[in-house]
Amino acid sequence: MNEVLNFVNEKTKVLLIVRENQLEIEGKNICPLNQQEIASLVPCGKLKVNQIIRELVEEGYVEMVHAKGRYFITNKGYELLEKMSLDEK
Asked: Which SUPFAM superfamilies match (predicted)?
C-alpha cells in the first residue's frame, strides 16, 4: 500500500485502493474486491465504503460493472488522481 495513504482522507483511499487492486478482465481494468475487503484496507466500516463508492459513482470517478459490486476507475477518476499527483503513469 502506498505510504501516501497515511495523509489522505477515506474517499481518496477508496479510489486508490480500487486503482491499486485492478485486474484486467475483458479489456478493462476492474477491481475485484468487494466492499468489505475495501473497508478492511482503508480501514473503516463497510457502510462507510458503501457511501463513499456511491459518491464516487455519482460524481463520475468510478463505475460499477453490471451491478456485481466490481468497480473500475473512469477517465475522470484518473484525471483527478493525476491532478493530486497520485496517478502511477
From this structure: Winged helix' DNA-binding domain
DSSP 16-50: HHHHHT-EEETTEEEB---HHHHHHHTTS-HHHHH
- 22: CATH: 1.10.10.10
Looking at the domain assignment, is residue 36 inside a domain? yes
Confidence of residue 8 (pLDDT cuts 50, 70, 90): confident
Question: Residue 88 domain-assigned?
Answer: no
Local confidence band at 1 (pLDDT 50, 70, 90 cut-offs): very low
Domain containing 19 equals 3-83
Number of domains composing the chain = 1
Indicate if the pLDDT at residue 4 is higher than 70. no
Across the chain, which distance is largest between two alpha carbons, in Å?
34
